[in-house]
Amino acid sequence: MGLLRWIGGIVVFFWVVGFILKIGGGLIHMLLVLAVIVFLVDKIAGKR
């Protein structure tokens, strides 16, 4: 899962840059919100 977390971090970084520069559409933002939710569930489930 380490590689998945790195990819998620890079995607979030580019999302923030795109959000600041007003690049990208609503679909990209929805997919990234979904990715953040999956990341958080992984973090919570990983502690068990």
Summarize the structure.
The protein is mainly alpha-helical. The chain is built from two helices and no strands. The protein has one domain (2-46).
Question: Would you spell out the secondary-structure blueprint of this structure?
Answer:
Blueprint: H1 2-20, H2 26-46
Helix pairs in contact: 1-2
Structure explained in plain terms:
The chain is mainly alpha-helical and 48 residues long. It has one domain (2-46). The chain is 83% helix and 0% strand. The chain is built from 2 helices and no strands. It has helices at 2-20, 26-46. Helix 1 runs antiparallel to helix 2. The longest helix is centred in the last third of the chain and has 21 residues, at 26-46. It is elongated and about 40 Å long. The mean pLDDT is 76.
Integer tally of domains: 1
How is the biggest beta sheet arranged?
A: none
Net shape: elongated
The Cα radius of gyration reads 12 Å
Q: Strand portion, in percent?
A: under 5%
Order of helices and strands: HH
Helix coverage percent: over 70%
The separation of the N and C termini measures 15 Å
Helical stretch count?
2
Low-confidence stretches: none
Q: Quick check: average pLDDT?
A: 76
In total, how many beta strands? 0
Q: What is the multimeric organization of the chains shown? A: single chain
**Helix-and-strand structural type:** mainly alpha
